[in-house]
Amino acid sequence: MRQQRAAALPEAPGSAPAGGSRTRVRGTERSVARRTELIAIGRTLFADTSYDALSMDDIARQARVAKGLIYYYFGSKRGYYLAIIQDSVADLVTFAASGLELPAVDRVHRTIDSYLRFAEDHQAAYRTIVSGGVGFDAEVHAIRDGVREAIVHTIAEGAYGRGDIAPVAHMGLLSWVCSVEGATLDWIDRPGLSRDTMRELLVKTLGGVLRAVEELSPSHPAPPPARRAN
Q1: Could you report the per-residue pLDDT of 176-222, keeping only the tens digit for each?
Q2: What is the pLDDT of residues 4-19, one digit of tens each?
Q3: CB-based contact 226:159 (threshold 8 Å)
Q4: How many whole angstroms separate alpha carbon 116 and alpha carbon 214?
Q5: Contacts for 222-229 with beta carbons within 8 Å, 24 or more apart?
Q6: Fewer beta carbons below 10 Å: N end or C end of the chain?
């Protein structure tokens, strides 16, 4: 009876059935949930396996889905991998930018620790991001550059209380981030140091950069924890 009454209601000219929009919303929600699920599966598959080591057949078999479903949501294996990397990096950047309630020094330590954890837990993706992918991959380079800028901004806010810093300060922090990338690559390939020791080493080298920036730009004084005792 309820269906008969609904069918009898007049519709506005050119309008869709009353339930159409709800059906589309539910369909969209299911699609988003399915895509999110596939990315989560991919993050596990590619956590320590390189892009070239897994074929689409391998991915579909291990994910227990039809290969066509991955093509439907991501267009290609590369599209799928880029979506996984972007999702992983988004977690890193979001975490690094959070913790505003923490003291500046604690926030810097937390940011560096989360960076190292990401590299440890997503080694294949981290290598891809830092190396720029196979050959020159503009999209992977853009992801890497975004991560660099996010880390520079977070460290600047922790060190100087602001993100808008002079070019010399920006270049100093960017050079530190680039050196961190190389050191972290070596660390995950040859893990001779604990993460705690690696974090403290990177914090101390950051202190050296902040002191050098202060010498060149007195308007950017190094925070007290980075100063050497007289």
Answers
A1: 999 999 999 999 998 889 999 999 999 999 999 999 999 999 999 99
A2: 333 333 333 444 445 5
A3: yes
A4: 27
A5: 222/159, 223/104, 223/105, 223/158, 223/159, 223/160, 225/105, 226/159
A6: C
